[in-house]
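Internal QA ticket QA-208
Title: Verify multi-chain structure generation after dependency bump
Assignee: T.L.

Test input:
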Amino acid sequence: AQSVTQLDSQVPVFEEAPVELRCNYSSSVSVYLFWYVQYPNQGLQLLLKYLSGSTLVKGINGFEAEFNKSQTSFHLRKPSVHISDTAEYFCAVSVWSGGYNKLIFGAGTRLAVHP
Amino acid sequence: NAGVTQTPKFQVLKTGQSMTLQCAQDMNHEYMSWYRQDPGMGLRLIHYSVGAGITDQGEVPNGYNVSRSTTEDFPLRLLSAAPSQTSVYFCASSYGSAGGNSPLHFGNGTRLTVT
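Actual output:
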């Protein structure tokens, strides 16, 4: 079965510092990978996705992620964070089951950016 | 642009009561789904639908029913609420099945408390 592990439940960081949010997945087949962000009291919105091609994927708000097949990882990075990046971040993997794709999410990482 | 609309935003139920969480989208999306979000567990898929008249179970379907009579609406029914169903519920839709080129669009959630 495919699953997603987010290695940190909380990540505190100072404003303008770099940040990396870690995500590992388990899968025996090719995967599609995603990062979603959830701001307080809102639903989730897509940050970026990896479907195929270049392993470095750029998303919105200056975030990027690198797909590493040998390490089964898809870590999210930003070189300089802002207070407004404070949110919960979810890694997700696409699962093919019953003839359809479904998204399976990790437990989430809460990013807290301090001034 | 309404997107995905969920009602109500908040609900308190007593154990054993029934209710329906409403979800409507105006983007003509084929795929719709329900997730529940619990602390430390991320989002877990309850049920999903790939078109009118077609529904299937996700990871945690027990205690929930769904139907899809129109493309726009995908209500989630709790027939006999239990405290374990206290959670935040999200409806999400996409043009194709989740996890491909089409991102999931989320509603703002329904916070349900069962006492």
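Spot checks passed. Residues 1 and 27 of chain A are 7 Å apart (CA to CA).
Status: verified.
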